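Quick one:
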Amino acid sequence: MPAPQSSAEPFSASCDTTRQHLPSPPLELETRLKTAPLTLTQAKDPGGGVMGAKRVTVVFADTGERLNAKWKEAPAGGDGWNNSPRREIGVYEVQKLFLDPADYIVPPIVARGIEFDAYRAVRPDPVANIDGTQCVYGALAVWLSNVTLPERVFDAERFAHDDRYAHHFGNLNLLHYLTDHRDARTNNFLVPIDRTDPRIFSIDNGIAFGGMLFNFFTWHFNKIRVDRLPARSIERLRRVTRHDLDRLAIFSELRANHAGLLCHVAPCLNLDCKHGSRVAAPGVIQIGLTSAEIDAIDGRIQQLLGRIDSGELTVF
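Output:
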């Protein structure tokens, strides 16, 4: 059945407020966090219930530039049910299927190995958590500026009357639906201090992609909770191919260099399609989605498009 035609141009957010919350464009920050030499300073607990995370100042050695960031050290072996860099990064990567950088909901986050000397501000006695390395592996994310915790994430009345808010919440709902995100506690989100800016950021995304353990008593956004969705995002999803989805099988591959520091390299073949965090040999870690998780996203896209084509959901 062909998609219903809209009688109006697809709605888009009226302005890009990204630079009010990030110091540089998202993809530029992503590259810098992955590859630039850095050290960490001023580590402290971030507040807001982010267990095991630290708020740190990143100092880039090549330029002296400073950047506020969230660091979360991975468990031994690189992954855990409630501390999963690859799930956090997975949600960041899935948003690229249907959002432009100006609309990103998850701020830039990367897998990173940090050498011991650069890590001592976080812990004076760092210990390698990936065999065959001399560094600490974890997830490094940009710290957002000019934001605060929301009183509530979903405001049904505002959604009905404010198209800018509906645009941003609709995209958030799409992302959490596609990734089967089941941790919608209020302190996992941030909103601009400027209440006229309707953006919503999702900052803690470790319980996603169908994990068995989650909060059964919280109303999550892994189901479509609204009756209309942003037309541009839906049209982007219509163009997603299985090849696009299969690229989610590998986000990053890191290998230890001569000094034992994990560094990003061009990925080889998938080391194990049944597992998302793959430590196949000492000094090597590869992360991505499993084949089952990719199949689940594919199925959710098709189900969603079917609901839109049947008229059950509309676009704007």
